[in-house]
Amino acid sequence: MNRAESERLAARFSALGYTEAPRIEAADIVVVNSCVVRKHAEDKVVNKLHNLKALKRRLPYIRIVLTGCFVGQDTAELYKLFPYVDDFLKPGELPDWLPEAACMSVAPIPSAVSAFVPIIQGCNNFCTYCIVPYRRGREKSRHVEEVVCEVQQLTQRGVKEVTLVGQNVDSYGNDLPSKPNLAYLLTELNGIDGLMRLRFLTNHPKDMSAVLIDTMARLDKICHQINLPVQSGDDTILHAMHRGYKVADYCALIARLRQAMMDIAITTDVIVGFPGESDEQFQNTYQLLAKLKFDAVHVAAYSPRSGTLAANNFVDDVPLVTKKARLAAVELLQEQIAGDINASFLGKTLEVLVDGTNKGRWQGRTRSDKMVFFSGGENLQGETVMVSIEKTSSWSLQGKLYAKQSQ
Ligand code: SF4
Hints:
Bound molecules: iron/sulfur cluster
Strand order of the largest sheet: 11-12-13-15-14
Largest sheet: 5 strands, mixed, barrel
């Protein structure tokens, strides 16, 4: 979401004739687009702002703008804390000194063959550990026509793969008068000429519908790949997190997805060390990950976010050393699982959308979002090619060009 919003902001400045500065000292405007989903991310924003203080002292004409989730409802305190910052903008807001023209919906200028397109902002769920609903507010969907128009513009400029993003894409359309859902939006987008791949994230296990799963299985452009955050493998912890489902519900959903799409790649998010999480409760998570065998697990140690229900009501009682040990255990387990899954591609030929080069080799992603590095062929940027896989690791696949595909 953060990356998608940065691209959109850049497109608006570009529409006004601004270009990217080669160095920060050469800029007229510096925009910091912040993420505070974890404490570590918030600390990085504060450090960045402190560094900018010296820049502003040296070059006072540079306009500094802070946007993103760091900026909550009340900006008065921020103006006091960071007086050298000129503007604090809530996510999605634009500075009032930008001319009207920039406030129109402008599709980002794609720098690659893939683009992120936000379809819904905010969240109505209030998971107890999460700061997002306080900073981004309630769910607000973009109209179907607006999203379709943007994806059409992007494909006309060479984009072949679009990822629809939102805090909870499964709630898409609930706040719109005609109540379109994600399955309907995907069906509309699937018909766009030139578009080859469609993805969407992030899903919520309590909101993912059978209609969406059927649509994923049926439409040719939707990649069989999904991120479905489980967060914990223990019902008591899930309840304390306000996740709205039980472990058994989650497992049933995974089974339904794998039944509908045998080749689906599933990734998940996990928080370890949530307040009160015992060794046994952590083991429930560990065993669940071992049983469900995800393609990737994004694991984070719990950190209290000020203002959330968990920070207000629960004691952060799992010692840091225990959190770190649990995090390392999950990472080690997942490395083995991902290594085994990737090894199953050895000797196969996979479709890869080429998005760049790395150390003299081409790089790109499969429809299941596996990173592939390969040799052979010229001028492949943006092409869809078939690659024979000759080597695998937990993180990527490597091989050589087998054939170019007709576009
Ligand atoms: S679903 Fe929960 S974790 Fe995700 S953005 Fe909403 S409140 Fe945060």
